[in-house]
Amino acid sequence: MKRYLLFLNLIIACWAVAFAQESVKLTGTVVGTAESVDYSTNALSYTVNTAAMAHDGDLSTCFASYARSYTYTGLDLCDKYVITKVGWSPRNDSLGPNRLVLGMFEGANREDFLDAVPLYMITQSCSIGTYGYGEVDCSRGFRYVRYVGPSDARCNVAEVEFYGYRSDGDDSHIGRITNLPTVIIHTVDAEEPYDKEHNIVSQITVLSDDDGGYILEADGTTRLRGNASLQFDKKPYRIKFEKKQHILPDTPAKCKKWTLINNYGDKTLIRNCIAFEVSRIAGMEYTPYCRLVDVVLNGEYKGTYQLCDQVEVNPGRIEIDEMTPEDISGEALTGGYFIEVDAYADQEVSWFNSYSYIPVTIKSPEDDAITSEQRTYIEDHFNDMDHRVYDSKWSGDGSYREILDMPSFIRHFLIGEVCGNPDTYWSTYMSKRRGDDLLRVGPVWDFDLAMDNDSRIYPVNNRSNWIYKSASAAGSMKTFANKVLEADPASTEEIYQIWSQMRFSGLNADYLDEYIDSLVDEINASQALNFKRWPILNRYVHLNPKTYSTYQAAVNDVKSFMRKRITWIDNKLGFDPSGARSVAIDSDAPVEYYNLQGMRVMEPQKGMLLIKRQGAVATKIIY
Ligand code: CA
Fold first, then answer.
1. Handedness of CA 331, 336, 340, 345 (dihedral sign)
2. How far is the CA of 160 from the centre of ligand 1 (A)?
3. Are 621 and 612 a contacting pair, CB within 8 Å?
4. Which pTM value belongs to this model?
5. How far is the CA of 417 from the CAs of 269, 421, 471, 543, in angstroms?
6. CA–CA dist 518, 523 (Å, integer)
7. What's the 295 CA to ligand 1 centre distance in angstroms?
8. Among 224, 275, 263, which residue's Cα sits nearest to residue 523?
9. Backbone phi, then psi, for 35, in 5-degree steps?
10. CB of 128 within 8 A of CB of 68?
């Protein structure tokens, strides 16, 4: 009898689940942007074209907001529902259907939608008088659901619909915008970050398929970042968590600050990623973590971004001693310092002009913590090096080489040259450790004008001399580089040796082609949306020398640039590439595996796309 009861209960339970999960069209209390526009007068209204008119079942009425962006209409469902499907219908107006493209459906459990995640993004609209539908791929239950109009569309939607079933759901799966990780930022009152000084309180959600499904939800702030890149419509952001986070499971650093690079002028969106791979091949001590992601801000799709380390002193980033205000004498005063030869130094709080007029920003210790002793120490130390270079003290006691770490200076120079970067000496990072006189150069950073993307020096491979000679530099940094790289007789051989090492470590065009192809596979769905959001492939942006009709054409130019550039440097340095090409696999060398972001993979799994390195040979493989 007991067994029968159990069986009966089981049947009832299954029936209840089946019944509960039957999706129905959901109703609730309308929530939405209060201010609408009365198109007959273009005036602000609270009675015409209201948010409720997107839920009245009437295709001749619509919601049109007074503000042009970040406006929404949705429902308070009064209980949690798992959403299975959404529907929409355009405003009865010639622009109606297009105004819905990139419109976003979101679900939340806070009335202010700070915790919202994407349910569905409209990529194909439908005709006036009809409904479009999208399947939702999300197991979490939501009390609040909404439709956020795309940028500049005034929401403009005749009807939105939500389908689902009553359930708290679970977090086993939250759908992303594409295969890439999605970074979702919601700011308080949907305030748009507007400058580099004001940190707007935000909730940040990161979704990825790392480790079979990864969800990070954390409080923080968002502001703009960058210099030239700040001028574009697609803004670069700096996010800062309240607590230190691995923003994705594979980040070496657990930190508060992360950057979202916009790559707006780079139509391939991957120039920085390629340059970072060159940096890893070149053996730079630290190459910033980067990962391609989709970004959603306050319910608006912002495009493909490069999620990246904030370049700063921290474990997993620049690993030097972090100074305290008590470190003002003896060995404690000698480091660590992190500085930047920086054309924009005069816009910073903590900076100096060197002996030969090189502008230098002191990044660490930070401007609100640095003491006058520390400031004097690092300025004097830099000037000591600058003075020695200026006075051509090439060798022996008093050589500039006692202060400038030449291997890192030359690697940094060659990475800039092989990537055709005009900004190598516009911004040059250096760090100094405690108890060590050397200023080490790195990391490399900012390649959006590299790889033939700068009309001032295009085409780079037709030039007979190094790029840095034709490019702008911070103050007199070009003179400094000339003296170190050319006037010092010992440097010629060192440049040749380090280039040889790079070539024998896997820097060759075939490998870069493969690497770029794998990035393109990864980014393909996202770049298509990015260029829907920002239709600029065929427009000149910033210093673009060319425009493109397709994304692939832009990528092909970069591939062919890198191929020619490697040969150009071989020729310039008299390096015979046949040795590098025919380099045999050293079967005694240990085999190491890396992911496409250059992170070491200790336990590769079958089917993983990996870079296999053995001795000097690197190949892309499926494990
Ligand atoms: Ca309606």
1. negative
2. 8
3. yes
4. 0.90
5. 20, 6, 11, 18
6. 9
7. 30
8. 263
9. -85, 120
10. no
Tell me the CA–centroid distance for residue 60 and ligand 1, in Å: 6
What is the per-residue DSSP string for 122-184?
A: --S---TTS-EEEE--EEEEEEEEEEEPPTTS---EEEEEEEEEE--EEEEEE--SSSS-EEE
Q: Which two tokens stand for residue 428?
A: 């040059």
What is the Å distance from ligand 1's center to 36 Cα? 14
DSSP 583-623: PPP-TTSPEEEE-TTS-B-SS--TT-EEEEEETTEEEEEE-
Structure tokens, 311: 């370049």
Task: Give me ligand 1 centre to Cα 268, in Å.
Answer: 41
297 CA from centroid of ligand 1 (Å): 26
237-245 and 72-90 strand pairing: unpaired
In this predicted model, what pLDDT tens digit does every residue of 358-403 receive, in sequence order?
999 999 999 999 999 999 999 999 999 999 999 999 999 999 999 9
Between the alpha carbon of residue 194 and those of residues 203, 310, 393, the distances in Å are 17, 19, 48
Nearest CA among 172, 426, 446, 461 for reference residue 306: 446
Task: Give the pLDDT confidence of 197-230 residue by residue, as tens digits.
Answer: 999 999 999 999 988 899 999 999 999 999 888 8
Q: Which contiguous run of DSSP H or E holds residue 428?
A: strand 427-432
